[in-house]
Predict the structure.
Amino acid sequence: MTSLVYTLLGGALLIVVLFVSALKILRVEPKALAGLMALLVLGVFVPVSIIFWPGADVFAVHLAVYMITVYALGIIFSQRAINQQAGGHWFHWGPAAIIGFFMFIVAVDAILIVVAQKGLGKEVALKFLPAPRSGGKVSSFFPGTVSHDFREKEELFNRYIEQRQAQQVRDWQVKLGWSTDPRAGQNTRFQIYVSDKNGQAIANANVSGRFLRPADSKLDQTFSMPQSKPGFYQVELNLPAPGKWELLLNIKQGDALHEIRAGTEIGK
């Protein structure tokens, strides 16, 4: 949330400073200067975003804020020049209402992005969201990750349904977790224990998985987990960003495939 606010407000403030400075130095019409500033914003922000892609939602909000700032400056200073020539006040409620409306929309979008990435605060979630039936923690963020796209081919969907049914009948038990509290940028051992429905260890399986980062697939990490002893598998992982992560884990022994999905939270 903090970094998003800094980049939005910082970028908008930089545009204001550049616009006012250019208006005094170049002495051009405010509308013409607004057009030049819009081209400058596109010419700088779009290439930088392509190189350091923040995600489509973050990109759209930043671009909207920056372009609205340019639009607002063009209207305000154009109206000011007209009214000063006519001997009246430079402020008018009409442009101010339009600008206020768009800024409200941008603020709401920014809040939705933050909630989707990090969820509501604990106290807010407990107050407004119902308690989970399973007795676990309330999760208020949208993961935004897609591990399967079943609509591409009906055959893939049918295979997945068959695999899930076989998995339910097989009823393997999987216990998983971190050896210590995981923190961003630090190596931490991730480990699991796999047993069948009778409690016997599932040994010599091929275990692999992916940690998926909501809204930023560039941070996704693929890994494999060697066996440390029968039924136990572990790997050292370093997840680079704090917050919510999704886990897709595959355990394969012979023709049997066991797939589970889970979530974790990485500390700062």
Remarks:
- The first strand starts at residue 173 and ends at 178.
- The chain has a mean pLDDT of 80.
- Residues 148 and 157 are 9 Å apart (CA to CA).
- The helical segments are 2-26, 30-51, 56-86, 93-118, 122-128, 154-170.
